[in-house]
Amino acid sequence: MIEHKNVRFDDAEWLRRMAALEDRCESVSVGGLAVDVGLYQTASAQPIESIALDALGKLITFTRRKLGLTAAKFAERADIELADLVRLEHAQRFVLDPRTVAQLAVALSVPVSRLMALAGLTKTVDTELQRAAVRFAANAEPLQGLSKEEQAALRDFVKELSERPEGG
Amino acid sequence: MRKIRIPRRGVDQPVESELHDDLSVEDLFLAERSWTVERASIMAELRRRGVPREDWPESLHWNWWKKAGDLRLLGTTQYGIFCEGRWQALLMAKTVPYTARLAPDKGKPLVYVDFVEAAPWNWKVPAIDQDREFLALGSTLLKAAVQQSLKEEFHGRVGLHALPKAETFYGGIGMTPLGADSQKQNLVYFEFSRENAQHFVTKGSKP
Prior knowledge:
The structure holds two protein chains of two kinds. Chain A is mainly alpha-helical. Chain A is 59% helix and 0% strand. Chain B is 28% helix and 27% strand.
């Protein structure tokens, strides 16, 4: 195996060969960082389904109110754009980027993978999770204070997100 | 920094350049920002010619400068190629938290390439008849990443997620495609095995 100190950057034949290869290709760009910061969106990225969006918005609102935080404070704590938080809480359809979902999962204390599934960012559809989202969205109303029923609904939904094994 | 030579279109001999391996994250994004005017020119020409958005270079409208202040990047190494008074291409690499996916080294540490970008005048943009000015930039930067992997005793293992228009290149140099990664917006993940990394730095292209 070649050693790092023997790697040459002055091999003219290597440069000629690589120049020819690169010239036949359209790009050399990589996208890991772009995905992580939300710059890259696939053409097929779809807005989150309305029921899941409703459930996610209510999950955020209820958790935020339970913590006694304004939307601005919660967005700051979660390190996401306030505009995205407002859109989510008002169930406005838009393409949710993975970084925002990951940050929200941490702020909401639920597994990242489960929130990704709820947001429709995983390949497999988790039907049980979707059903849980429907129950939660149907039973929760965004009142000022959380009623006992809302607290129970919130507790059950977070439990569903956190404890059930992954997979549809 | 080390002195290197880079091929330039229309010039017989490679041109003297510098390979820097000590850029800060801020340096990298300042360098990328220096490409703003040229990027805007390409965008204007694409619009003028009515080229559909899906045929634009994938990174053309990305505003890294807006994002750079949000990035809290630790443990990264930034490389750049500097020639004729300008940054020609940039790369960011890190060693955590990624591990190899390719057998038999699955789970072992590797150098993960997070970011590779060439200056806009080094893009191939067929829609506006633009050819690259400098060549072998991506290859040279990737060679630096493989060298880092060798130095770290990772035996040349390097991984990255290619943008769709770059899949041909990374497959062509002998990196193994391991399928679309749903955790990275379905970008295809490529990885160098030990053997192919060695072949790449000594011979170039696929074994």
